[in-house]
Design a protein that fits this description.
Strand content: under 5%
Order of helices and strands: HHHHHHHHH
Number of domains: 1
Radius of gyration: 23 Å
Helix content: over 70%
Oligomer: single chain
Distance between the termini: 10 Å
Largest sheet: none
């Protein structure tokens, strides 16, 4: 089977010429277009259940802190201790997101560099029957989605890390300052679950794309 035949076979119900899928690769002009077309976290039942479970945990943490445990912030020492814990936690999350981004950006760059160009050509012409996005776009869009989500979570963690370090603000804003810091404490389970879901989806998408490229790629002239 030749390369052109492999592309035709994998296009499914979409009637696409070589020029069509090449033009399709150039359709997006900015990263926002790619992100909006990328697969969201709701692409599988597991992802939905996992994220909803983390939302439930975050809600339980919130209820425990502000309703079931009303004396949690009844002294200045407890408030300062709590803010210190938020600062340490947000700092640890920043380090985590920086590490994850650095590791996966490096790995994906190496992967894109060493992979045979012809495999990408095959993926560029492969369309699933239930999707208008080629397998090549799906793979790179998934990485863009992964990158942006982790970048946003890292930025939010940095904001809370700086905000929680402003201890004199306790005397100025009082309880409101503590509640703002508590928001991050409650959201950490959600942040972690989003990261896990994105990592899982990204790794599976890489594997799925490459097995398609290997199956339909013929390096013989």
């Amino acid at each position: 089977m030749s390369q052109r035949e492999a592309i035709d076979v994998t296009e499914g119900d979409i009637d696409s010429t070589e020029e069509d899928w090449r033009d399709d690769l150039l359709e997006e002009e900015v990263i926002l277009d790619a992100y909006l077309k990328s697969e969201g976290i709701w692409s599988s039942r597991f992802n939905v259940c996992f994220v909803l479970f983390s939302v439930l945990i975050s809600f339980c943490v919130y209820m425990w802190m502000f309703h079931s445990n009303e004396d949690y912030f009844d002294s200045n020492e407890k408030i300062i201790s709590f803010i210190d814990s938020v600062s340490s936690l947000s700092g640890a999350m920043v380090a985590y997101f920086v590490t994850i981004l650095g590791f996966f950006i490096t790995g994906f760059s190496i992967f894109a560099t060493v992979t045979d160009k012809e495999v990408f050509v095959v993926l560029g012409g492969h369309y699933r029957k239930d999707s208008k996005i080629s397998s090549l776009k799906r793979m790179f869009f998934n990485f863009i989605n992964f990158f942006i989500v982790h970048l946003v979570l890292m930025f939010l963690s940095m904001v809370f890390m700086v905000f929680s370090s402003l201890k004199p603000a306790v005397d100025i804003f009082g309880e409101s300052y503590v509640k703002i810091c508590s928001v991050y404490y409650c959201l950490v389970p959600l942040f972690i679950s989003l990261s896990i879901v994105k990592i899982k989806s990204f790794l599976w998408n890489i594997y799925d794309s490459m097995r398609l490229g290997i199956v339909f790629y013929d390096d013989e002239p």
